[in-house]
Design a protein that fits this description.
This protein is an all-alpha fold and about 120 residues long. It has helices at about 1-30, 40-50, 55-65, 70-90, 95-120. It has one domain (about 1-120).
Length: about 120
């Protein structure tokens, strides 16, 4: 029984961390559209930086949550809520539902996994 609990604990420990890294890299892909727009070097660098502000915030949250899981839980769930709020500022179209599931759904899952890990660690 102890071996099975240890496997579950490893799974709960590593899954949100690995998913966070993959999710952050996925978000970086969206910022690559700034290249090739005929901008100067500094305009491109500034646009790339602006596009990656959420990535930088989530990377810092991941770094902190590596030790303090509740930070990752709150940060990723909050990131999902903020994305939905920003999405709803535009007139609703059905394809936006797929965007919300892809971005916010993954952020919610990561946040929940971090919170599960935090609760298990507290026990």
């Amino acid at each position: 029984m102890k071996n099975k609990t240890r496997k579950v604990s490893k799974f709960v420990y590593w899954t949100p961390r690995i998913l966070s890294i993959v999710f952050i890299l996925f978000l970086v892909l969206f910022s690559l559209d700034v290249f090739g727009n005929g901008l100067t070097f500094w305009q491109t660098a500034l646009a790339f930086l602006m596009h990656n502000i959420p990535v930088i915030i989530l990377a810092i949250a991941l770094w902190i949550s590596w030790k303090y899981e509740w930070v990752g839980g709150v940060a990723f769930i909050l990131a999902g809520v903020v994305y939905i709020i920003l999405l709803l500022r535009n007139p609703f179209e059905w394809y936006m539902l797929a965007w919300a599931i892809q971005i916010s759904g993954i952020a919610f899952l990561i946040g929940i996994l971090f919170l599960i890990n935090w609760f298990k660690k507290k026990k």
